[in-house]
Amino acid sequence: MDLERLLTDRLTPAFAAVAGEPVAPTVRRSPRADFQSDAALALARRLGRPPREIARAVLDHAVLDDVCAVAEVSGPGFVNLTLADGALAGMVAALAGDERLGVPVTGEPETVVVDYSGPNVAKEMHVGHLRSTVIGDAAVRVLGWLGHRVVRVNHLGDWGTPFGMLIAHLVDLGEAEAAQELSIGDLDGFYRAARSKFDADPAFRERARQRVVALQGGDPETRRLWRLLVGQSQRYFLTVYELLDVTLTGEDFRGESAYNDRLGAVVTDLDRLGLLTDSAGATCVFPPGFVGRDGVGLPLIVRKGDGGYGYPATDLAALRQRVDELGATRLLYVVGLPQRQHFAMVFAVAGQAGWLRPPVRAEHLGFGSVLGPDGRMLRSRAGGSVKLVDLLTEAVTRATALARTRNPDLDEAAAAEIGRAVGIGAVKYADLATDRTRDYVLDWERMLALDGNTAPYLQYAYTRTRSVLRRAGAVPGAATVVLPGTPAERALAVELLGFAGVVHEVARTAQFHHLAGYLHRLATRFSTFYERCPVLRADGELRASRLLLTDLTGRTLRQGLDLLGIRTLDRM
């Protein structure tokens, strides 16, 4: 049950009748009632009528008697709506009996491709990969739970001129030693050693260039060594994904190399469509609307002057494959904000070529950076990028220590389980609770706090619901919700009915901080309810009603956190 949608559906025809045209009621929660619409204020300017007069006319047309106890005009022209106790109780009882918590499977499933994580072969995953991986995985979980066919794509950097250098270094080391070095996760060390030799040794540099030619020409031995590099890197990436507890698997890897055979067709078809222009020796498309500071149009280079292909050609080939072969109608690219213009130009060119047309749409889910306490890009003590595995390991270590401090009697296995769930959850939630377009500061003390808008606070709220139900001995199967109860009970009931609306909004916008914010509000409402409304000491119908609210809160917290990729525990 989506309360905001229900009230919106009731007010929409009323506003249309008053305005003579469709009007969005913009229903939202209100501190002065359960819900509020301020659409009359904006409509007043268009109609030249006082907003309070418009609001009264809307209420005259609206059918709300079966849902609202009070529907009134407030202030300069707000429509305030207070739900009827009987209607509210009935909706909560129905919600409790729904295993999907009022969130139906979509009746119009789409094929959605989510392109996320995207590390580079023979390079360490660092903190810069955290946001793409966590945000992309949340998108996969939400859209999949709603019934869409979701295709995960881990677009690996596994091709290009650096691989000549890496293969030559692998040969120098010997396959066994190289495999050992890569398998323990020292990808950065391997890459730095290769780069150092490339910069300092002309003979090595020549061997590297010959390997590039051999790789691109399909030489079997060079291709075998290249696959060894890719395979070892992929195995290491999977250990990081397992620690981070995301859904990516080995089947989701699809490197840039997978599109090599399609690049020529991209250029040929763009040429046939008359979209190509030669510019300084390169083959380019100049999509309309993109200009530099000098007012000159910006090119999207699909083939470089030396005949090689760059990222734009690969991204265009990938987009075509996802639409034509996978049947995708929604493409999500979870890549940092600095790539915003690149993707906007790729999408524009794909639109010009007819490869991206309704109902297909592509969206760049850009995100900000993770900052250190000094407000600058998070760096290691040595000044380099922080390895993602080191960050996650530190989170688990800190959370495990906190768990032991709070409960010294925990055995080793229990402390490790709590430490991992809380530590990894804290890292992921701090990321997802932030508007993804903004930077945020990595603050261990705040992230691991048991109060405030944090994963541990929500996880603890969930364990509290489980504790109450364990002590009660049973969960009511079909209890009656007793309302009106205390204000705390009513507030919790209204909050529980907001879950469906938030999930659908997040599926549309990929703004996961709205789901995080909802879960925090729900946990806060439950905390107030827990303090003010005795559950186990209540009797009869009231006890059963409060147990139902407790169980429903726990189920909602568990499902909401699972959509964010965060584990819950029955005990902490």
TrEMBL record:
It is an enzyme of class 6 (ligase). Its EC number is 6.1.1.19. It is found in: Cytoplasm. Keywords: Aminoacyl-tRNA synthetase, ATP-binding, Cytoplasm, Ligase, Nucleotide-binding, Protein biosynthesis. Residues 458-572 form the DALR anticodon binding domain. Coiled coil: none annotated. It catalyses: tRNA(Arg) + L-arginine + ATP = L-arginyl-tRNA(Arg) + AMP + diphosphate. SMART domains: Arg_tRNA_synt_N (SM01016), DALR_1 (SM00836). The keyword ATP-binding applies. Gene3D superfamilies: Arginyl tRNA synthetase N-terminal domain (3.30.1360.70), HUPs (3.40.50.620), Isoleucyl-tRNA Synthetase, Domain 1 (1.10.730.10). Residues 1-83 form the Arginyl tRNA synthetase N-terminal domain. GO terms for molecular function: arginine-tRNA ligase activity. It holds the Pfam family DALR_1. A motif ('HIGH' region) lies at residues 119-129. Monomer. Belongs to the class-I aminoacyl-tRNA synthetase family. This is Arginine--tRNA ligase. The gene is argS.
